[in-house]
Amino acid sequence: MKIELNNLSHEYDVEVLHNLNFDLSKYKSIGIIGVSGSGKSTLIRLMSGIEKPTSGEIIINGMNVANEAHKKRVGFVFQNHNLFPHLSLKKNITLVLEKTRDKSKEEANKTAEKYLNLLHLSDQMDKLPKNVSGGQAQRASIARALSINPEIVFLDEPTASLDPILTHEVLTAVEELRDLGKEFVFVTHVLSFVHDFADYVIYMYQGKIWEHGLPSMLDNPKTHELKEFMRKVR
Fold first, then answer.
1. How far is Cα 93 from Cα 8, in angstroms, rounded to an integer?
2. Long-range contacts at 95-102 (CB < 8 A, ≥ 24 apart)
3. 116 φ/ψ sector (left φ>0, alpha ψ -120 to 50, else beta)
4. Residue-wise over 78-109: b if at least 16 C-beta within 10 A, else e?
5. Residue 180 carries which DSSP code?
6. Residue 53: pLDDT above 80?
7. Common-topology check for domains 1-71+152-234 and 74-149
8. What is the SS3 assignment for 222?
9. For a pLDDT cut of 90, what percent of the chain falls above it?
């Protein structure tokens, strides 16, 4: 994956990201870490094209993320599963495929079943989200993101609302996706998952990229801020 951030800033009521300039290439799974409010989720939403930056630009794999074609090549998994509550897990996927990818009912059903099976949900696919566990609902959300066959999968703290057992369940499922040939950008607070799944790590602090490198950097931080972060989360 090649990522370019050029003079990137973003604000809501206050500035959240401050003039980021960053260039990264060749890595396939990028983890973004940092304390709450450091800009992690904002950055991943901008990179996916869900939101537009206040100023600057983002180019991923040679395409500006403002291009509508970029949105067609990404899948996004939110902190909460974000499934339609009145539809079964399977219907949550087939609806997206039929309405946004022009798939026939037969194609949509086949694809939904494929990815729900992949995420170990073959016996849950006809249930409503409220009738499955939080971990199962989040795995269904991941299946939905994969069903559109994206080049890049963005995961924004996919286990933020889950207990430790369900967190392990979801992250184990994500790790099993490593061989699908996809590229991943994810935000997480689970450092064991960063070590296991990321091949590059970005540490954010106060709206800036403070330190970045291979996962081994977490064992030997260069900056005081990352040292303090690691001390508190371990």
1. 33
2. 96/144, 96/147, 96/148, 97/147, 97/148, 100/148, 101/148
3. alpha
4. bbebebeeeebbbbbbbebbbeeeebeeeebb
5. G
6. yes
7. no
8. coil
9. 93
The arithmetic mean of pLDDT across residues 166-170, rounded, is: 92
Q: Which homologous superfamily is 1-71+152-234 in?
A: P-loop containing nucleotide triphosphate hydrolases (3.40.50.300)
Would you list the domain boundaries of the chain? 1-71+152-234, 74-149
Please state the pTM of the whole predicted model.
0.94
CA–CA separation, 97 and 90 (whole Å): 11
Q: What is the mean pLDDT of residues 140-150?
A: 95
Q: What is the DSSP letter of 49?
A: T
Q: In this structure, is the dihedral angle defined by the CA atoms of residues 42, 43, 49 and 55, taken in order, positive or negative? A: positive
Cα dihedral value 86, 92, 97, 102, nearest 10: -10
Q: How many residues does the chain have?
A: 234
